[in-house]
Amino acid sequence: MGLFIHIHLIAAIAWIGGSIFMFVLGVTLLDKEKQKQVYPHIGPIFGYFELVSIVVLLLTGTVMIVDNGLYHMLLTHDDNIIVQALRKKLFIVAIIVIATIIHFFIAFRTNGKERTKIQNIISRGSSLLIFFLNLFVLHYAIMIRAML
Length: 148
Known about the structure:
membrane, Copper resistance protein D domain-containing protein, transmembrane helix, transmembrane
């Protein structure tokens, strides 16, 4: 598990750090003209970077679940504290993956184009949801790691 935890941590740092960066950028860059200059350039680069990060997180997370003997426990009615925390974390991760797919679909489809009001609301809402859910995933990851 040693190598996988390190790769997982690096990917988590990239994923969450990128999320924080984009959140701060979105909050501080209020000028619409500046947004039109910045987002078409930084968005795709960030998107591909984040896509690689989330794939690495999902792969290494799956390997660590199997290596730690947690896969079988997840599928049974085992209700110890580690499994409870892992189920909560995985539920939140599933929501993040869905929100990421929605966000990427809108972002890549509308890159360099004017978004509709509903596309803007969904894109920003999913981005904000991902940002906050990342904090909960981090919380459960710390709890699980401390128990293992």
